Amino acid sequence: NIYLDSIVIHTTGGVGPYQYVWRTTAGVPQSTDQNLTNAPAGFYFLTTTDQNGCSATSGAYQLQNTVSAIPMVAAADAGISVFPNPATDLVQLTLPDERDMTLQVYNAFGQMMVTQIIHNTTAAINISEWPNGWYLLTIQHESGISTLKLVKQ
């Protein structure tokens, strides 16, 4: 999901009161408030800990600021695709006729798996050693930033 300007969550389960830590994809703590506000655009993960010390970490939340200088562009509108999807070993990323795009791939825990500059209209990504699960591909290009979900089987 993409959230504009703030991320508001509701905690259920466990035993309150709860402690919250919002982290960037690099693992840097951003906030200890229940809701994430006044944060830069990007991807964030929330770790919630209850009174008994039980904790859970969310999947990626994407925060987009309405005053962001870099627009979000639907991958299909930008001419970006990834196939096969789901995949087991090698995926092909197809890009429009633009150069020097930045590709970043994050796993479901927010760990960056790949970061690279792509200089061509296609790029092969070897995912054979990656654990099964879903991954988020972000591509920064001339028109903005596009995201795609990739499933590794």
Fraction of residues in H or I helices = under 10%
Order of helices and strands: EEEEEEEEHEEEEEEE
Mean pLDDT: 86
- Which stretches are poorly predicted, pLDDT < 50 over at least 5 residues? none
Strand percentage lies at over 45%
Structural class by helix and strand composition:
mainly beta
Number of DSSP E strands? 15
The end-to-end span amounts to 22 Å
Largest sheet: 6 strands, mixed
Globally, the shape reads: globular
> How many helices?
1
Cα-atom radius of gyration: 17 Å
How are the SSEs ordered, and which strands pair?
Elements: E1 2-4, E2 6-7, E3 19-24, E4 29-31, E5 36-37, E6 42-49, E7 55-57, E8 61-64, H1 75-78, E9 81-83, E10 90-94, E11 101-107, E12 112-118, E13 122-126, E14 133-141, E15 144-152
